[in-house]
Amino acid sequence: MTAIHDRGDSYLAGGRRVDGGRAAFAAVVLLAALLATHPSPAAETLSGEAIMEHVRILADDAMEGRGTGSAGERRAAGYIESQFRKIGLKPAFAGGYVQEVPLVGITADPSTRLTFVGPKGISVARYFDDFSGICGVLREKVVVDSEIVFTGYGVTAPGQNWDDFKDADVRGKVLLTLVNDPPAEDPKHFGGKAMTYYGRWSYKFEEAARRGAAGVLLVHIDKMAGYPWQVVQKSFAVERFQVEGRPDPLLLEGWLQREFVENLLTGAGRCLDELLAAAARPDFKPIPLGIRVQAEINNRIRKLTAPNVAGIVRGTQNPDRFICLVAHHDHFGIGAPDAEGDRIYNGALDNATGVAVVIELARRLNFKKPADSVIFLTVTAEEQGLLGSLYYTLHPAFPLAQTTAAVSIDAVNILGRTSDVEAIGSELSGLEKIANDAAVRLGWKVTPDPFSDRGGFFRSDHFSFARAGVPGISVSVGLDYAGKPAGWGEQKAIDFINKHYHQPSDEITTVWDSGGMVQISEYVLSLVARIGEENGLVGWKEDGEYQRRAAAR
Question: Can you tell me the distance from the alpha carbon of 58 to that of 352, in angstroms, rounded to the nearest whole number?
């Protein structure tokens, strides 16, 4: 990335001054240079180069990977705030553009070992290599000594006539649990091949905590998780965050690498394939494994705040009805080096692109005012479990009862234009017809999520709004690229997941084409217009969890 020399200055970021040094001043120098050589485009246009300028700044080494709560994230938030000010957005919050999110950071001692005592001896899992995770309770020292029970997929779903626990008492035990949903081909059963929230790791932890378990160890199998073990290593073997005051934490929240689990089970006279087969049946019952897990976990705990940033454009017809456009500005900061020795997780695609699009949409919609008011929100701690957006929905700038829809813009296509777009989760609400109409107006089609088995609906910030009752979708351009053979776009997406997702190599490269970022911007503008035409009548399609939450707002 760009090399910029230290001038020892400071930078006002999100209302807080981040003191001197190369990194702090670098963002200012880079910004000034870009704005000097690339004048702002006309307000009525969407400019691929303007979007790319924002990406270059947000993904520069000077932002130090925008780790949650870091000085680099604070600088990124300051840049976003400066752009909202320049555009002329009104501050969304009573105190300005920034909402401080109270967090607690927990870092496990990397020398931590998990000792498994079984009928044929002891197995030791090494941190990072064999397991990854944290202690969820806010104590500097925690001792775990618990029986391990295999709980299948760890799911209790009355509506699906599925219960992995069968009233078993798992209080004080550590649950060995599979990721994803129980297998199903019928789309009416756990979404068929599409992942439901029951398949997400966050659900597994929540359910275990409700039942009084001491912890959960998830068996990481690449195909079932949808990403390789190295993603778990880089994403979770670092400081992890939770919103301050989180209820019902577990002593142990972690992942075990498949090969280690296979060897562990063999030593206990068990076979992972046999357990997988048993867990796939609705008559499955929890299986005590005759193994205990023991560990002494030393934690470093710190309290901090991290910034959400938001501005608003008031609607010309319905100023008290709101559409929220949300993108996360955080990433993973500085961490373990890759094979090239790079330790900065720049997060160019994930998600400097989405933030850049939000900034340019703000400029465009401030010029041509929408019918409904639009909130432009960039959030912290998405990579920590959607914490920034969760906090916003608990403390919204404007009433959620008056928020018609939330549109998440996350990891925008950087390979050029396509003939299709994706609107993940639209089928659950009135946004389905709106999303299709918005695409047709532009000559495109909406295609289903090709990776629905990975649970994309639950992995981006619109889901926090959905859980609060607000219909939400995640949008992206599709995979049907002009002049490319069938399957080309899907393979490129798979390659990114396997090689660059949550890695230092997520950087701008020479193959980037801003056409896809302009396309998604055009699509979101079309969505905003169509949502405004619905007079607030978006709603959920059927009586269910999200509709009940909407009624409770």
Answer: 6
